[in-house]
Amino acid sequence: MLLDLLHNIIFFRCLDKAAVVSDTELNTGDYSNAWRLCTVTQVEELKILIRMFPIWATGIVFSAVYAQMSTMFVEQGMVMDTAIGSFKIPAASLSTFDTISVIVWVPVYDKILVPIARRFTGKERGFSELQRMGIGLFLSMLCMSSAAIVEIRRLQLARELGLVDEAVAVPLSIFWQIPQYFILGAAEIFTFIGQLEFFYDQSPDAMRSLCSALSLLTTALGNYLSSFILTVVTSITTQGGKPGWIPNNLNGGHLDYFFWLLAVLSFCNLVIYIFCAKMYKSKKAS
């Protein structure tokens, strides 16, 4: 509460000056320059956007985790056993289980979780938007941990069978990836939909469409962040001629370390999110 009070006094009070008529306007009688004089409504809307920004920023790390579904999860699946009899399953096709997870979780959330949560919280929606996003961020951490555990087992089999130096698939069924896709689908339901509801409900009335689009911007920035993390990891881990965590031959690498790194980042992101959510001051009903 003290930090929130100081924040409002020191920072937001500075913004209030934008709506104060100065001597220049009084002398000239010109109040039309929007760069020199703002309305109280404009100042209040800016305050709302600033309060929303930390919550928005935490969605970028989640989107970086979500981007692994079409990148590192596929790379991991390509060096696993994709055979069902004589049929080979394309590694990228397992993203279907993310879609199935979403289809399953939507009715489960609406028909089971919301009524249960409503009894405890007394809220019509069961969970607030902030609580819903927090659950999604927690699930993203579990998703990365699940992927790391599968990779640890895959690398263990590669060592036991002497396949470390061979760029071949390890006899571990690709269906062991299903839990990480399924958890990611659940995280998607909680986080992305929670974001849309949050930005729509909390944004200034005249900026709802723009603020709703901000939630989609996190997806693009999350992909950039994922690429940046991958570049940094590759650069650091390949120094001194080492193969690095993610070499061409994943059997000789440590993709599990990369997944653990994202799990740690997700945990740190969750801690920051909880702090920001506790500090967040909801918009007054219009």
Q: How many H/I helices?
A: 9
- The residue ranges in which pLDDT falls below 50 over 5 or more consecutive positions are 1-7
* Spatial sequence of strands, sheet with the most strands: 1-4
Give the CATH superfamily of the largest domain. MFS general substrate transporter like domains
The total strand number stands at 4
Description:
With 286 residues, the chain is mainly alpha-helical. The protein folds into 2 domains: 1-38, no CATH class; 52-279, MFS general substrate transporter like domains (Growth Hormone, Chain: A), CATH 1.20.1250. It contains 9 helices and 4 strands; from the N terminus they run ααααβββααβααα. The strands form 2 sheets. The chain has a two-stranded parallel ribbon. A two-stranded antiparallel ribbon has the order 2-3. A hairpin with a 2-residue loop joins β2 (83-84) and β3.
